[in-house]
Amino acid sequence: MSNRNIKNVLVAVIGLAFASSALADTKTTTFNVTATVLSSCNVSATDLEFGNYDPTAGDLDRTSTITATCTAGTSYAIALGEGQNTSRQMKLSSGPDLLDYELYQPGGYTTIWGDVGSGATVAQTSILGGPVNYTVNGRVTGGQYVTAGAYTDQVLVTVTY
Questions:
Q1: Which residues are registered as beta bridge partners of 74?
Q2: What angle do CA 34, 43, 78 make, to 5 degrees?
Q3: What's the rounded Cα separation, in Å, for the pair 42 and 132?
Q4: Whole-structure pTM value
């Protein structure tokens, strides 16, 4: 190959390199990223275990914990049902006897914690979101002389938001 041909090839290669960089262009765009966070709550509860009850020893007090986990800014109310038996009574597992008990809102044994219809619920607005614990104060009143044995009930916890 002659020098002239080599020059022509070099000029052509250099020209192509400059031509492709001169032809290159950049365009940009953007896109939105969106999500909608819904008001949401979950609820859990620990069992309320009174243990051994002696009717001559006076009232038997124990506690349980309800945990409500809601999104930030969600207003909610926690209600406790009356139980499976008549008006917060535990039933003897082997007979018809009933043992009365009551459930009270956090802060002591003064305000009964009711169901949705009673309006005696615990209301809250979740400020930061995440779990919040509520103490359920339970009491079996002393002086109930019922048949010895194991008594049980089950209470429905409802979170309305």
A1: none
A2: 105
A3: 11
A4: 0.78
pLDDT tens-digit map of 79-98: 999 999 879 999 999 989 99
CATH number of the domain at 41-160, please?
A: 2.60.40.1090
* Spans of all domains in the chain: 41-160
DSSP, residue by residue, the chain = --HHHHHHHHHHHHHHHHHHHHH-------------PPP-EEEEE---------GGG--EEEEEEEEEEE-TT-EEEEEE---SSSSSEEEETTSS-EEE-EEE-TTSSSSB---TTT---EEEE-SS-EEEEEEEEEEEPS-----SS-EE----EEEE-
Sign of CA dihedral 15, 19, 22, 27: negative
pLDDT in tens, 47-80: 999 999 999 999 999 999 999 999 999 999 999 9
Handedness of CA 110, 116, 117, 123 (dihedral sign): positive
Would you state the structure tokens that stand for residue 155, as one six-digit string? 């209470």
Q: Which of 158, 154, 125, 148 is nearest to 52 (CA)?
A: 148
